[in-house]
């Protein structure tokens, strides 16, 4: 566990929460702007209530942001099963998975307003989470 970087991310998430409030809609809007074809997948996998699945996905991605420096092994285990499952069972390409994580970070990180060591922690967080998707691209 990396207490220092975990604390830096937590502090930034606190600032972002105060500034943004509920991030679900901004994350979803950015994700769909980048991957418009993904909207049909959400509708298909959650007919009648895609907002519920969207909120769940934002919550899951945020959870991994929150625990990356605290429990990277838990995150690796989750991604190592989730990325291939989404690709093969649900026809969700790794690019969408990566894009979802990046959309969340692209909404939250500017509001976190990281400086100094925080900026480095956010960059490492992004690299780590995106790297987990990339390592499972062909799994």
Summarize this structure briefly.
The protein has 7 helices and no strands.
CATH homologous superfamily annotation = Globins
Order of helices and strands: HHHHHHH
Q: Beta fraction of the residues?
A: under 5%
Coarse shape:
globular
SS summary, helix count: 7
Structural class by SSE content? mainly alpha
CATH class: Mainly Alpha
Question: How many domain modules?
Answer: 1
Low-confidence stretches: none
Q: Helix coverage percent of residues?
A: over 70%
Mean pLDDT: 93
For the secondary structure, the number of strands is 0
Give the biggest sheet.
none
Query: Rounded to an integer, what's the Rg over CA atoms?
Result: 15 Å
Give me the CATH architecture, please: Orthogonal Bundle
Write structural notes for this entry:
The chain is mostly helical. The protein has one domain (about 5-135): Globin-like (Orthogonal Bundle), CATH 1.10.490. About 80% of the residues lie in helices and about 0% in strands. Helix 1 (about 5-20) packs across helix 6 (about 95-110) and helix 6 (about 95-110) packs antiparallel against helix 7 (about 115-135). The radius of gyration is 15 Å and the shape is globular.
């Amino acid at each position: 566990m990396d207490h220092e970087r975990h604390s830096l991310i937590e502090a930034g998430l606190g600032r972002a929460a105060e500034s943004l409030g509920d991030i679900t809609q901004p994350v979803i809007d950015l994700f769909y702007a980048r991957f418009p074809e993904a909207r049909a997948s959400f509708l298909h996998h959650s007919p009648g209530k895609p907002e519920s699945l969207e909120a769940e996905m934002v919550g899951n991605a945020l959870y991994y942001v929150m625990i990356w420096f605290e429990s990277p092994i838990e995150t690796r285990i989750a991604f190592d099963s989730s990325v291939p499952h989404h690709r093969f069972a649900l026809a969700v390409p790794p690019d969408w998975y990566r894009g979802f994580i990046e959309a969340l970070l692209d909404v939250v990180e500017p509001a976190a307003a990281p400086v100094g060591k925080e900026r480095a922690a956010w960059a490492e967080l992004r690299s780590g989470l995106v790297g987990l998707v990339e390592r499972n691209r062909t799994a």
